[in-house]
Amino acid sequence: TPDQYQTIHDLLVKVALAAGDMVTTAKPQNITAKNNSADLVTATDKAVEDYVIGQLKSQYPTFEFLGEETYKPGMQLTSAPTFICDPIDGTTNFIHGFPYMCISLALTVDKLPVVGVVYNPYTTNLYTAIKGQGSFVETRAGHFAGQKIQLPRGGALPLKALNGSLCAVEWGSDRSGVNFDIKSALYTKLAASTEQGGKMVHSLRSLGSAALNLCGVASGEMDLYWEGGCWAWDVAAGWLILEEAGGKMYSGNAGEEVAVDCRRYLAIRGAGEGSQVTQEELRNEFWGCLT
Ligand code: IPD
């Protein structure tokens, strides 16, 4: 019920803020590679996830839990209420001291997010959403401290075709085989001039956090975000924040249905008055760039 979602939202906010303090006071230690040398984990990722599990399990012992650091191959997202946790979304940034990452926490029911909380402890931007109630950003420090602003900030701007858009993409950690070929060809096509057969987007952005990319699209700071290869914990919270701000989540594979655990995603922001294209038209133009 909405009351329960509000209580869970408040708990996720409390846990995310405390986890943010754990990250900003930690040094990256015990850096180890998972599937390859660009797929990294630190002691802090694990410590934060342990903390999150302890907090959430003590309040909601019957709920399922899906977390990046406790995931084992074969684990599936089910229809049961499930907490989804990425303890550090942007581990590579954390390791390099690039001050941009977040704690991403969601509750899914029937495999869809109903509560989403994303907290970047460096910018102190706290993004939140409850299903049906809009999404918000609150900056905890600095000039905007204490103001809770509904997304998209200032209302949705007109949506344009790809040519003229600011588009988030990520390399992710999978750099081989057909996945690498798809990414390389797509990014070239998006960036190239129209004489080169490309779309000549205004630019591409790779800030290193899937959840923050989704919040950036929700906010209207970027027009779209595509990634192939990320996971349910990277997108669950940001998905709700995006959709509650009028954005749409589509599959990152042309013609497919999207699901929280489908691994390929295309996020498009809300379309304001005077838009040149609908979200579906922009999606179709983007899907046409995939080979
Ligand atoms: C990664 C980041 C990165 C994205 C990867 C994710 P992690 O999450 O979101 O931007 O490109 O696909 O796995 O490993 O830092 O939690």
Automatic annotation (TrEMBL):
GO terms for biological process: inositol biosynthetic process; phosphatidylinositol phosphate biosynthetic process; signal transduction. GO terms for molecular function: inositol monophosphate 1-phosphatase activity; metal ion binding. Its cofactor is Mg(2+). Mg(2+) 1 binds at E68, I88, D234. SUPFAM superfamilies: Carbohydrate phosphatase. Keywords: Hydrolase, Magnesium, Metal-binding. Mg(2+) 2 binds at D86, D89. It comes from the Eukaryota. The keyword Hydrolase applies. Coiled coil: none annotated. It holds the Pfam family Inositol_P. Its EC number is 3.1.3.25. Pathway: Polyol metabolism; myo-inositol biosynthesis; myo-inositol from D-glucose 6-phosphate: step 2/2. It catalyses: a myo-inositol phosphate + H2O = myo-inositol + phosphate. InterPro entries: IMPase, Inositol_monophosphatase-like, Inositol_monophosphatase_CS. Belongs to the inositol monophosphatase superfamily. This is Inositol-1-monophosphatase.
